[in-house]
Amino acid sequence: MSDLYAAIMNLPCDPDSSNHAERLAFKRGHKQARHTAAELASEHLVEADLLRPDAAVAAIQFALNDDDGMQFLRLWNGGDFDVIRREWPEAPEEVFIGADPLHKPSK
């Protein structure tokens, strides 16, 4: 289960009515909306994963052709993407997509 799915499923339900029937209806609707939203998000994430290039493969391919490839991979594995951008400005964008949570695609 993804973090997004879990976050949606754990959204708090705070009905603002003192009427018991309204509170129950609100909670039922909230539950249905949570489940639907979580399923939609889950489907979207699966589709996005299928379309996303594999950052690990891109990082390894780049490192194999670089004199300091092992250092590059150590930094990549450790999530030191700012250092990578500074030290290897020629690194392809694919090494960041899906690996760096702060990466903003250029396209």
What does this structure look like?
- The protein starts with a helix and ends in a 20-residue tail after the last helix.
- Helix 1 (3-9) packs antiparallel against helix 2 and helix 3 (55-64) runs antiparallel to helix 4.
- With 107 residues, it is mostly helical.
- It contains 5 helices and no strands.
- Helices cover 62% and strands 0% of the residues.
- It has 2 domains: 3-51; 55-95, no CATH class.
Can you tag this structure with a few keywords?
107 residues; rod-shaped
Global structural class:
mainly alpha
Mean model confidence by pLDDT:
84
Cα separation of the termini: 29 Å
Order of helices and strands: HHHHH
Shape: rod-shaped
Uncertain stretches: none
Count of helical segments?
5
Largest sheet: none
Fraction of residues in β-strands: under 5%
| Range of helix content | 55-70%
Radius of gyration from CA coordinates: 21 Å
Oligomer kind: single chain
Q: What is the count of structural domains? A: 2
DSSP strand count = 0
Please outline the helices and strands.
Blueprint: H1 3-9, H2 20-51, H3 55-64, H4 69-78, H5 81-87
Helix pairs in contact: 1-2, 3-4
What would a concise description of this structure say?
With 107 residues, the protein is an all-alpha fold. It has five helices and no strands.
